[in-house]
Amino acid sequence: MAYLISVNAGTPTPTEHSSMPMTGIDKRPVEGPVLVLVPGPQGTAPTGIAGDVVCDVRVHGGPDKAVYAYARENLDRWATELGRELSGGVFGENLTTSGLDVTGARIGERWRIGGEVLLEVASPRIPCRTFAAWLGEAGWMRRFTERAEPGAYLRVLRPGSIRAGDPIEVVHSPAHDVTIGVAFRALTAEPELLPLLLPVDELPERTKEKVRARLSQ
């Protein structure tokens, strides 16, 4: 059974690797129930997790990046390869999951968590300099891209309360085959896959605009 290992929220941390002086990537597990909310438009501070912080609101937060999920199984593979412990939230994820194929989740797939919250898979996470600096691993952006296990950004379709240990149930899966993994590869190392993304209604419009621009070059 798929379930939540932890719900993670961040606090502002100084960084020299972004155009912003602070980052919210340092996320730690939260004890007890946590409210999941529908955030305001991108460019405002809140995310979908009550008490969480994002600092560069130009590229983080907003309805299409309300919640970020990463699989514990993928963290464990990285921990083995890097030879270090990777705690829940260390990749900046809000939800650390178990038993859920996050990379194989289709864009538009819907997850029910606990008895209230309904989330929709929106897009993959694209690595940035801040993420690389936070991990402190040589060649991290290249290695992360080559692995193509990016985790998923999710929309909040139905708000509510969640906590560690809550079950996760996939309640809807679209008919198309564009997964988080396929979308990530298309947007990074395999641009020949880009045409597959445009017919996917649930892909964020900002992402589609970038795809159209790249295909028109």
How would you describe the overall organization of this protein?
The structure is a single chain. Helix 1 (72-82) links the parallel strand 6 (67-71) and strand 7 (95-98). This protein starts with a strand and ends with a helix. It is built from 5 helices and 12 strands. The chain is an alpha+beta fold and 217 residues long.
Describe the largest sheet: 8 strands, mixed
What does the oligomeric state look like here? single chain
Order of helices and strands: EEEEEEHEEEHHEEEHH
Kindly name the structural category: alpha+beta
Q: Per DSSP, what share of the residues sits in E-state strands of 2 or more residues?
A: 15-25%
Mind telling me the C-alpha Rg?
Answer: 16 Å
Count of helical segments? 5
Strand order of the largest sheet: 4-1-7-6-10-9-8-12
Shape: globular
Portion of residues in helices? 10-25%
Q: What gap, in angstroms, lies between the N and C termini?
A: 45 Å
How many strands in all? 12
- Chain-averaged pLDDT: 95
Q: Which regions are unreliable across 5 or more consecutive residues at pLDDT < 50?
A: none
Question: How would you describe this structure in keywords?
Answer:
single chain; 217 residues; alpha+beta; eight-stranded mixed sheet; two-stranded antiparallel sheet; 5 helices; globular
